[in-house]
Every structure is written in structure tokens, then in C-alpha cells.
Amino acid sequence: MLTQFRTESVSTSRSATSAEAETLASLMVEDEAVVSDAPTYLPEAAGGLLLLGLLLLSPKGPKEKPTR
Amino acid sequence: MPFAETPLRDEYAAAVERVAGRTLDALRGGGGAAALAAPDTPVPRTLLAAVRVLGADLFAPQLLTGAEPDGPTAALLSEARRAFPSPAPASPEAALAIAWQDWAAEQVLARTPYRDAAPAPTPVSTPVSTPVSVSVPAPLPGPAELGWQAWSVRMAQLSVLTLPGLDGPVHDAARANVLDLSRGTARAMLRRDFTTAVRLARWLAWADTEDRPPHLEVEPILDRIRLVGIGAVRTRLELAVAERLSEGGPR
Amino acid sequence: MTDTQVLATAQQLGTRALSWLHTCYQGGWGRLSDNTIIDLAEPNDVYKPLCEAAMASSLVLRDGVAGPQDARAARDMLDGAWEQLREGDMLYERQLRHVTVTDPLETYAHFARVGYRHAALEELLESISRLRAVHAVEIQGSRQLAVANARRVIGLSHRPDWAELAARTWLGALPEPWTIAWSIAYQVTHTVFHLTDWGARPADLPAPMRDYLRAWLPVWLDIWMEIGQWDLVGELLIVDACIGEPALGSSGWEALAAVQREDGLVPRDAEPIEEEPESAIRAHEHTAVVAVVAATVTLSRALNGTDAAAE
Predict the structure, then answer these.
(1) pTM for the whole structure
(2) ipTM for the assembly
(3) Which of B148, C101, C125, C288 has its CA 20 to 30 A from that of C278?
């Protein structure tokens, strides 16, 4: 004996309203995230080394000394 | 695009979460049917809406453990398709996605006494002879036409097709474009769009079972998604499916 | 966009960026104050931009694909920088005093590449290259490659183990591409720059790294284009010109061309550009350098084939 269900509504095959139909579609087909959360600049990681690394990543540079 | 939050949408979305939760429990519990509704009792319309949304994924617990789709769930899905025959998508692209999701549902239902002819009124090609004689929707345009980014997002919307036992032109496109699926996955991960990422990871796990190595290790991705903690139960269900597929579930 | 359109876009992007840079230096921006360099308190302030501009100019002259006006601008900037470095004496004095710093070596390479030579400095560099200490300084993988390439460009006798150096980079591990961070991206790009000597030696990029880049460059380009990280976009375009057949299409070039200002400034990101001219130059000078190099190396690869530069 096949399982049967009946819906709560009076008619078992009431047509979906347009709001129901649109809502269903929006839940069935979801878009990707609208806004990207891709990685960006991290201050502590940059250390000022871009095309040319110069001094090592020390906390401070050497003190400017009077030269010659 | 962002959809206006309405009470109806909130209601349906909450029901989707509940049904996804029951299905996830069944999947984690080793398979077997989720008890979604008692037979011979009135079924709330919102429950049917949720069932309509999840479609073939309701059978994930059975299909991923090598079992046949069960009668009660099939009856419920069949009733849901009768109650809500025509979701109204906002675009032709969404319509095609729904057509393919419905095709997947029909394919699974055809293995039960509840095979039906509930229409999906979205674009269909001339009926192709398949083992179960359901008409096949038009194929998606490929990544060459759409760009790998847009194509991968549309494939994510068809993650349900990765369930065991399904095959067709979309699967052929997946086989032929695994690198682009991988790129789409990496892109979603970097954008921190984990919902899209996990859906694409289902395809990568599927590709692995098809001997089409995905260019990306899938398990670290699934680990990462599990760790960052996705809120939606529906997405956690997709993650569990991806995990099962990647363990080499039955085909 | 067809390939030739990409080249046309690249050429225009580069020539305008070069013109902007040249104008900045002509306007007296970025002059080293006398005798600052030896103990260098603020290396990124003026010295680093000066060296970057010299580098870009050096590649323009090396690759020989620029028009005469651009070549003159490049030569101008090199002459000006060399003069500020007292024809190399400043680099010599700095290296003499600070044995283990590498910036004199790296800076000098860009000058040596196109004929500015300093005999005493080269002798000094040879000498310190014989010290264990110099090779044991703790620097990250992509920087070690920078040093190795600088020695190679100058023609010093030290021979690095390129394969080993390449393996000791993030890129060399062929990692999960979705883990990349902003600063790691720069390490990746620089790994490629130095292994290939800025596109002159694409065959020197190990094949697994090249295949990895071909797979994932499109993803990285896409995500950073989406959030307007133009400086990084430019660097990825340089990489694309260093791997043989390019893996990226035209979209990165189109995006940079679209954000480039009338005066040739290329914004480094999507933030509003500073109004104060000095601040604007400081903030966006690097991106102009990137644009010049990207255009130069791309045109050179397309026009000259694999051997873009004389040794």
C-alpha cells in the first residue's frame, strides 16, 4: 500500500500562488556571495618589503648616524 | 541578487533548515530515511515547500550508503511537486538550474513507485531516451562561453547532481572541465563564500570518484569549511554529502 | 580582446606610467639627502622608491621594446639615480661598512645590467660572497632568490643552487592555492621575477611551478581585480609574462587601463587618491613601477620570444 500524504489545505492540489512560486525559486537557486571577502593588506605582514627588500624585518631601523 | 526578506521567505527558509537538519541527522546516523512527516496525516504546506527546495538531496542518506530511495520520502517529494509544480525563477539561467534540479528529482523518483510526470515548465530539449524516459533539460553553456567564474557558480547551483546514480550532459561538462571547477572552488574559498565553495567541492569529490583528479586536494577544503563553521544547516548537509563522496561513496 | 589589442593596451599603460614616474623625478621628488644612505634610517622613504624606479628603467633599456621617448626617460631616471648614489660610491661605502646587508648588491644589479659599473664595489661584492656568514643570513626564500639573481646579473662568480632555492619558497611547495594571503602573493610574484630574471629566462622556472601558476593565476587575478588591488594585479600580469605562454587574458590589462589617470598615475588600490601631490606619489609610485615592468616584459615576451634579454 503506497504511502499517501495530504496537505493541510482544503484542496490537495491548490496551485501555488505567484509569491510562493517566486520564493521557492529563490531558495532553489542561490547566487554566489555578492560581496567578496578576499584577503587584503595586513599591516604586520607587509614590513615594507616589496620589490626590493632592504633591511631585515627588525622592529626598527638603525639610528641615523652622522656620517663622515 | 539579494532577495527581499518576506515573512513567506523566512517561513520557507526556516522549514528548509529543519528538513535539511533531519536529513543531515539521517545521513550521519548511517543512512535510512529521515522522518519528515507521519504518513496519513496532513502535511503543512511549508514542509512541502522545503521538500520541494531540497529535492533529490532528501535521498542523500540512502543513496550515499548504497540504499534505494525510500517510499515515504518519495511520496512526500511527489506530493510536494504536485503542490508546487512551477517555481517562478527570476531569470532564464535560474530556470535552467531549476529544470536540472527537477530532472535529478525525477531520476530518483523513477526508481520508486512514485515516478510522476510533475512538470517543470522550464526549457526542455526534445525528450532524450534515458533508462527512465524523463525529458532532459537543455545543457548549460560551458566555461568557454560563460567564463570559468560564472560557469562554476552555475555548477554550484547544480550540486544535487553529484548524488550517486545520476549522469548526463551536465556531468559530461564537469568531466571535461575539472580544472575550471577547481578554479571556481578556490575562488569561492578565497572570497570566503563557503556556501558556493562546498557545493563546488561536491563536484570535485564527485570528479575524484570518476577518476578525474581535481587539481585540488578536496579534504583540506572540506576540513577548512568545517572549521570556519558554516551557520546554515542546509550548507552543513552539503558538506556532509561532499565528505561522503570524498570517502568514496558508492556510485 | 585579441592578443595585439592586449599588447597595445599594455604598451599604452606602460608608457604613460613611465611618463608619470619621470615627471615625478624631474619635479625633484625623491631626492636622497646627502650622506643618508650609509646607515640608512628610513630605507623605504626615498632610497627604496629610487631603486624601484631605477629597476624599471633598467628593464626598459634591457628589453629594448620601448619607443625612443620612453628609452630617453628611462636613461634619464637611471642617470639621475646613479648621480644621487654618487656613481655607486654610496653603495660601496654602505656595503663596506655593513657586510651582511644585501641592498647595495640588489640595487647595483639594476645599474650593472645596463652598463653602470663600479669596479671597487664589484670586487667588494666578490669578496663578501666568499663569507659563510653572508650566505647564512636569515632571509626568506623569495628574498634569497633576489640576492642570487642580483649576483647573476652583475656576473659575480658565486653559483647558487637554483633548484634548492626555488624549492625553499612558498611557491616551491605548490601549496593549496586558496590559502594565499596578500603578502604571500608578493612573495610568489617575486619568486618568479628572480628565478626568471624578470622574464628573461622563462625556461628557468621549474615546470611544476609553471603548471601550478597556469592553473591558479586566473583565480588570484580574479579575486584581486574584484576588490581593486591594482598593484597586485599588475604584479600578477608580470608573472604571466614570465611563464611562457600567458595564462591570463585581457581582463587585468583592461582593468588597469581603466583606472589609470590621465597623468599616468596608476592607483595601487580602490581607495581614493591623496590630494596632496607628495603623498600621492609616495602612495602610488610602486604601482607605476609595476605597470612599467608589466608592459615591458609582456611586450618583450611577445615580440622577442623566449630570450628577451642579452645576458
Answers:
(1) 0.91
(2) 0.94
(3) C101
